[in-house]
Structures are given as structure tokens and as C-alpha cells.
């Protein structure tokens, strides 16, 4: 895989990892739907300004339906994942979310991509490392089992979004427009779900009221997620999708390291070994 697409795919991992860490923290204090809607609304405002400044409207076409589909699937995946992160340790939940890489990898194989031997080895090593990096604990209380179910649901959604957004544009300005359409759809779908949840008696805000002080963090989560979608789309368009998807799926390692640094969650031996395997797999993928 060329160096530049590999760097974009790795940037995707960094951005998604930090966004997941921030989203998980915010969801512990604010309802998950509110986190999704507010963070994505901030992203809509910024992306709208970028589209206007770059003339992205000229790139409108039928391919934007892929962005609409990604926008409908995205809120379901994000909501499921943020709830799972709030239920269980981030270092346990996050690696399972990366299993969604099977969706774009499968699409790439169906479309005829055939990675080399080193890259196949890199895929196996990296995915194994990502799962181990969280020190997965599948046994335990019902809350843990619910977290696992929500995470697997989110994984399928994330994988579908990766496949859809990579088909939504072929140019940089078109990518800005596709991301804008995706986020507008995110906000519309998430807002409708939030309205229904409130009508059924669920709280829309924490007891302390609207989290004004958390706006910068919410903005970071929304914009980091948008940027990650953008860097992944570029990586997938300029390199093998099978390889780009696996490199982009390394984000749980970032989430686990952030949890270690900011929340003092201790890395177990299996987690450290997993991080090492993920690094080895990354090197194989980038050089294969």
C-alpha cells in the first residue's frame, strides 16, 4: 500500500480513537442521543461553511445517496457504541467495535481486491492485536453482555458507514459535500429519535441542564468523527480497501491508551501484547 493512503488510514484510527474516548466520557454525564445530536450539529455548521467556501454544491449527484444511507446508519451505530462505552470499561468495549472492519474488507474482496501474502498476514495480526488490546472480558454480569451486544451492533453499522462513505464522492470538494449530507442526515435521524425518546419520558439533558461547558468537547467529538470519515474515504479511494479498512480499524488501541492516560485504566498483559501485535500488523500492511 502506498505511503500516503496508509498515513490517511492511520490518521483515521487516531481521530476515531480520540472521538470514541470523548464520546464515551460525555455519555457518562449526558444522554447518548443528546451527545450524538449536539456533536453532529456542530459538525454540520462547520461542514456547511466549508462546502460554501469550496463550491462543493457543484459536486451534487446520485452518488450522494450513499452519503444519505451512511447518515441513516451512523446514528444507530454511534448511539449503540456510546451506550456500550458508558456501560463497560472503554478498554473492553472499544476493541469489539473494530470487528466492523469485516464489512469493508468483505466488500473489497467481493470487488476483486487480492492483498499480497504479507498484507494478509498483516490483516490477521492487526485484527488479533486490536481485539487483544482491550483485554476482552465476555463473561460477567448482564450489563456486560448488553454492552457486548450493543458494541457488535455498532460494529456492523460502522463497517457499513465505511463502505458507503467511500462510494459517496470521487473528489475532495465532493467529499466535503458528501460528509455534509451525511451529517445533516445524522442530525435529522438522531433528532427524530431524541424527540421520540423524550415523548416516552427519557431525559434529554442531565439534571444540571444543558452542558454548555461540554460544548468544546462535543464539538471535538463531532469534528473528529467527520475528519475520520474523510481521511478514510481518501485512503480507500487511493489504496486497497481491504488494507485501508484494517489500518483504520486500529482506533481501539488509541481509545485504550487514552483511557490509560486520562482515566488511569491499567493495561493488562494481554492488552500490551495486543497493542504490540497491532503495531506489527500495521507495519506488515504498510509495507506489504
How would you describe what is shown here?
The chain has one domain (3-287). The protein has twelve helices and no strands. The protein has helices at 3-27, 32-54, 64-87, 90-97, 102-110, 117-133, 142-165, 172-199, 215-238, 241-248, 251-263, 269-287. The longest helix has 28 residues, at 172-199.
Mean pLDDT: 80
Total helices: the number is: 12
Poorly predicted sequence stretches spanning 5 or more consecutive residues: none
Give a count of the beta strands, DSSP E runs of length 2 or more. Answer: 0
Tell me, briefly, the overall form: globular
Largest sheet: none
Radius of gyration (CA) equals 18 Å
Number of domains: 1
Instruction: Please indicate the percent range of residues in DSSP E strands (runs of 2 or more).
Output: under 5%
Transmembrane segments: 6-26, 33-58, 64-85, 92-111, 117-135, 147-166, 172-198, 210-235, 241-263, 270-287
Family: Belongs to the EamA transporter family.
Keywords: Membrane, Transmembrane, Transmembrane helix
Pfam families: EamA
Short description:
This protein has 288 residues and is mainly α. The protein has one domain (3-287).
Write the layout of secondary structure elements.
Blueprint: H1 3-27, H2 32-54, H3 64-87, H4 90-97, H5 102-110, H6 117-133, H7 142-165, H8 172-199, H9 215-238, H10 241-248, H11 251-263, H12 269-287
Helix pairs in contact: 1-3, 1-9, 1-10, 1-11, 2-8, 2-9, 3-4, 3-7, 3-8, 4-6, 4-7, 4-11, 5-7, 5-10, 6-10, 6-12, 8-9, 9-10
Amino acid at each position: 500500500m502506498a505511503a500516503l493512503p496508509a498515513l490517511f488510514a492511520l490518521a483515521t484510527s487516531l481521530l476515531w480513537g480520540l472521538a470514541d474516548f470523548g464520546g464515551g466520557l460525555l455519555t457518562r454525564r449526558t444522554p447518548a442521543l443528546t451527545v450524538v445530536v449536539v456533536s453532529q450539529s456542530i459538525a454540520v455548521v462547520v461542514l456547511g461553511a466549508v462546502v460554501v467556501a469550496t463550491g462543493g454544491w457543484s459536486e451534487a449527484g446520485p452518488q450522494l445517496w450513499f452519503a444519505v444511507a451512511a447518515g441513516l446508519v451512523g446514528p444507530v451505530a454511534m448511539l449503540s457504541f456510546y451506550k456500550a462505552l458508558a456501560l463497560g470499561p472503554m478498554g473492553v468495549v472499544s476493541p469489539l467495535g473494530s470487528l466492523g472492519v469485516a464489512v469493508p474488507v468483505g466488500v473489497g474482496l467481493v470487488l476483486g481486491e487480492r492483498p499480497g501474502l504479507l498484507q494478509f498476514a498483516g490483516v490477521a495480526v492487526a485484527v488479533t492485536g486490536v481485539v487483544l488490546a482491550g483485554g476482552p472480558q465476555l463473561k460477567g454480569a448482564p450489563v456486560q453482555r448488553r454492552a457486548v451486544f450493543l458494541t457488535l451492533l455498532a460494529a456492523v453499522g460502522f463497517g457499513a458507514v465505511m463502505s458507503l462513505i467511500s462510494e459517496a464522492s470521487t473528489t475532495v470538494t465532493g467529499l466535503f459535500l458528501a460528509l455534509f449530507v451525511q451529517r445533516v442526515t445524522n442530525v435529522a435521524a438522531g433528532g427524530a429519535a431524541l424527540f421520540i425518546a423524550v415523548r416516552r419520558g427519557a431525559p434529554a439533558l442531565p439534571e444540571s441542564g444543558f452542558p454548555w461547558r461540554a460544548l468544546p468537547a462535543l464539538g471535538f467529538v463531532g469534528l473528529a468523527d467527520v475528519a475520520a470519515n474523510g481521511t478514510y474515504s481518501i485512503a480507500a479511494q487511493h489504496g486497497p480497501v481491504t488494507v485501508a479498512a484494517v489500518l483504520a480499524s486500529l482506533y481501539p488501541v488509541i481509545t485504550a491508551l487514552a483511557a490509560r492516560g486520562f482515566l488511569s485504566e491499567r493495561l493488562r498483559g494481554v492488552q500490551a501484547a495486543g497493542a504490540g501485535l497491532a503495531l506489527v500488523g500495521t507495519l506488515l500492511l504498510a509495507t506489504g
